[in-house]
Every structure is written in C-alpha cells, then in structure tokens.
Amino acid sequence: MDQGQIEQMMQAFGHHMVASISNLTKSLADQMTSHQEKMFAQMKPPAQTEQINTMRQATYNPRIKKFDGTRPDLVEEWLQVARRELDTAAFAPNEGMRFLYGRMAGLARAHFEANYDELVNGSWDHFCTQMRNRFIPESFAFAQQQRLVELKVTTSVQAFIIVFQRLAAQFKEEEIPEKQKVFLFINGLRTRKQLFEHLVQKKPTLLKEAIEITSNFDGKRFLSTKKFEKKFTGGDEQGSYTPMELDHIRKTSKQRNKTSCKYCKKRNHKEKDCWFKSGKYMKPNNLEKEESPLKEETEE
Where would I find the Retrotransposon gag domain in this sequence (predicted)? Predict the structure, then answer.
C-alpha cells in the first residue's frame, strides 16, 4: 500500500469520525432538551398559573364593566355579562368569584367584602340571589314589573324588543312565568295588527321564539317596503324622480323671454308671424294715424 492510499484512508476515517461526533452531539442535545422540558413541566404549578393568567387577562377585559351598586336597573345586565365571562374563562368556582370581586366598586365592593367567605365559597345562584336582594329594592322590582306589563311598541319593533328583553331578564321564572312573558310581549305589539295576528297564529311558547318570529317578520316587511319604493321611484332608492330641475326651469324661462317680435315688441312670437304687421290686427299706437273707412264713406 503506497503513501497516497494511506492518506485517502486517513481522510475517510477522519470524515467518519466527525460525522459520528456530530450525530452524537445532536442526539445528546435533543435528550437534554427533552429532559429539561420534562423537568420544567414538573416544576410548573398544576393549573394554578394558567388560571391566574387567565384571570388577570379577563380582569382587564373591557367587556365587563365595574359595578358599584348604585343603579338597580343594571344589576341583571351585569350578572348576565359576568356569567358569560366566567364561562369563557373557565374559572374554578372560587377563582371566578374573586374575579368578580375585582370588577366591583363602591357599595357593591363593600358588600362583597362584608360577605367575602360566603360569596367566594358559595354557588353562582347564591351569588346572584345576594346581589338581587341587596341592590334591587322591592319598590324598584314592583315598578319594573308594572313597566313590563304596560310596555307597548311606540317607535320601532326592534327598540321594543330591546327594552322588553332588558325588563324581562330581571324576573325569574317563579316571579313571572315564561308563558306570561310571551303573553305580555305579544300584547305589547297589538297596535301592529299584521305582526300581532302573525304571532297569534304561530303560538310561540318561549320568549326567545316569539322574539325570533317578530324579528323575521319585521325584516321581511322592511325588505318588501324597500322593493315597493324602488318600483315606484324608477329604481332610485334615494327619493322620487324630479322631471325638471330648477336650473332647467330658469333656462327655459329665459329662452321664452328672449322670443319677442321686433315689429310690435311683444313676446311669444316672431316678426314673420306678427299679425299686426300683416294687417290682421292694428297696433294700438297707430290707431290715430290710420284713416277709418267709415269716415271716408261719411264724407262722400
């Protein structure tokens, strides 16, 4: 074996060793990374960190505003938003109550602090009952119930739906049953004869169902009205068609004023069509200059 072959063998061996060391280093690095991930996973507190981070993010979420307990009409609306936030964030029961404590101020926060252990460790229904009993006086509840009974559509149907939903949400099933809410809703639309008859025919049993039927009917009525207006306005949705604009009228008027006879100086005809020039009519200014045929006969 000569010197050249020996050098080639040495180079091949060297490349093989470098490749082997590189692969070994990569394998050790992968094993270390996997080991570190497992170690960090074991060091991470179970679920608490994620819950705390979620709570911090939700605390600064503007979708739920702070409640101070000064407006009884906002209690039910605030509770509904709070329930949605808790379901979205998937809090543990006690963490959810602490989150709501952070979204309170004034009287509401003071009430929560006075009953902290009871509210934090209690159920959602217990929390809602406490909030209603403390911040919705009986006189206000009676007034709201009376308003719901007397509510009638006055402007738009959609505005009526929004107000009715807010009032109806303030009363539980044992206070105002679902059937009675449906009856009051339909009765409030009595002045809209076609819609009222449509609801009576459909016979909804749930308030949600009655609202859906009403919204669909009102939407179809709006679209049919727009089609009717488009048909009788020549396709112009902005308003009725105006055949002659003011500028056109003024222009026509000026042209009419310019058409005048150069012979008699009167308007609305030209000199070639002038009856005074043709002798059919005598100009008032020339009556004294022209001789009368009756006068000539008298002199003869």
Answer: 107-191
